[in-house]
Amino acid sequence: MNLLADIQSPELEHSISHLLEVPPYGIAPEQRHKALLALFKQELDYACARNPQFCNYVKHWPIAVSAAQNISDLPYLPVSAFKANPPLSLVPPRDVKRTLTSSSTSGQVPSRVVLDAATSKRMTKGVIAIIRDFIGPSRRPYLVIDTPENLGRQAELGARGAAIQALGSFATEISCCLRPAQQGEPSLDLEKLLASVEKWKDAEVLVYGFTHLIWVHFVQALQGRGITLNMPRIHVLHSGGWKRLERLAVTKDVFIRNVSSVFGCPPDRVIDYYGMVETVGVVYPDCELGYKHVPAFADLIVRDPLTLAPVGVGQQGLVQVCSVLPTSFPGFLLLTDDMAEIIGHDGCLCGRRGTHFRFLRRVPKSEVRGCGNLETTRQRFERGSNV
Amino acid sequence: MSDLIQTIACPQEITCLAQRLRNSAVDQDRHPNAILDIFEQWADALNDRHVRDIPGVTFLRLWLRRGTLEPILRRELGPDFLNGGWSEDGRARLRAVPLGVVGHWPAGNIEIQPVLSLTCALLGGNSCLVRIPSGLIEPSRLVIEQLQKIDHTGLLMERLAMITFDHSRTDLHEAMARTVDGAMIWGGAESVLQVRSLPFPHWARLLVFGPRLSVAAMDAATWGDGNERSSWCRRIARDVWQFEQQACSSPQTLFLECGPAGSDPAELVEDLKLAFKEENRAHPRQQIEPVLTSAICRARAAWLLADEANQASFPETPDWTILLGKGSHIPEPTQGRTLSILVADDLLKVVSKFDGNVQTLGLAIKDKQREEILTDAAARHGVDRVVRLGQMHVFSSPWDGTDLVRPLVRLVRHVSSQN
Q: Does residue B225 sit in the same domain as residue B305?
């Protein structure tokens, strides 16, 4: 192990810890930017000292790290870099406590990120800091709309398990209300659900599930039986994307309306959040106005696909997520395959400070090759270059 | 939607259009010279300021010239074809007759492809039913509008129907297939297979131009020559820029023959960077699909993370990318002006690893005999076109190893019943 890397670790740890201890949405943007820029530079140097391939990437970046004036100047990796096998790592194998894998759709290679003890701890702290700001600090019963096997402490954990377990710190007790799949899909364990509801009827309850699981195996299953739960004090958190629900023509409004109707809770108790295993520890829940906010220990840049330059307020582009939390893998600055719109860099009426944005969609997957497709998604007449 | 390109709602509309086209093709001959005359005027008309900047139109203007097409027709159909009518063949007579109605399924990523495709069929005297991909409606309309302006008698326009419909409308694809006597099918593997499986009449002749890729190669003597290197780099840049590197004929990889001790491919990369910057200045992108931007970023990262010996040059924008390393296998293409440069010990060994997936080999080789050896090897290993770098996109016959007009005519043989 490089001596320089070891020397830098305590210093890094201190700087990261400091950002984790401040209120996640309380720092003025300019104050936060300065601290983050310096920290990201430190982290890049640290990563370069530990991974020669990553160092090769940084070395070829058009702007030298030392010369970067903005976070947007720093070298960012595409999230697909974590589809590599073995996974990109900044720690020796003996220090890897857990590997997280993304929920890849069929045929796709999943992303894999390695966590050491320190990164794992920071990520838990990050999620707690963010979620606490939305649902309050108290511990409460935790209803998981998923199957019990996602609660186990496996060495390799999928996206669903990671998301479920990240919220475990808020739980006084946990109940999973889906039965494991017998053939293909899981199913609702109604008896268990109703017993939990009866037991927790007067309590504040935290509910979490993947968006499509909640819709297909919970909402539709209960509506099909004409059952409404009376749980007005719950918070329903959900994540995992809208692709499958779009196929079912279920919009976000329809989803929220039906979920709140099934639980018997106000719609503002149903909170969608954006997150991914590559940036685990930083999640982006919707505020009361429907916008997602960037916490103190992270940043978010939306880049114009034509120039890759950051876009301004009201403009759309590719999302780059930035997080100071990982030190076991180089997931500090990641360009995603998601599109978003910047709503503002401060002053959201919900009271949270810093950048807020609206998630738009995933960039459609497309195989790029040969003389192209008979049908293109291009809906414009491109002028400029010619033969 | 323009009048020139009809949006189709039901199969009956296609059947009616095809009937009109068939009547036109069957009822009256079009003398090849008359078609060439109109093409010549069309080429002039395409200099119109509203049209000339459409990607590929500069090439289309050259393609439509008599000087380009006459030699192709003579080679494919014989010297007598241009005179029209019958030609003697011993005791028999032969005549090239149009198939009838030719359906065209062009790819959606090359602006001029619908027009290039239909010109091949028109040269054979056919009528054309052309499905225009949704993204190419406007450029296709503008180009055909110029033909409409000069084709006062409707000699070609009445043999042309351009239609558009949602790509998922299988019923309309099927209706189109049922009504044609031949088809030109272009595109990716999945799309091509889907179109091929449509219910064409059993006599229909299908020309399929599926997905392929192209590569370039340069010998050490060429890239080591400081006087010539920059002009070769400009040619490479031109080939990379055209069609956003999405055409089958676009070079995705440049193989560099390993030079003598002391020669450094970094010199070539420097010249190439200048050429790419200049080409980008002259032909900047106006738009890009986010999926392509993502692919470009992925390619840059994957290359540099794969091996710490790999090198790359790219700006902060997705405008262009040069990836430099060693190897003799063609990497997965990225497109979007992303050129992989691989230094290889022996170009002959590189070419010997090609298969039918490689369409065009663009060459810059100093020694003529060496070039011939490489060409022979490439031909044996599936390559259909071997051309000078800078000319990789020159659309000519044969394309993909196939004649462009000949398969769209029937050669009718007449042996007189009288002694």
A: yes
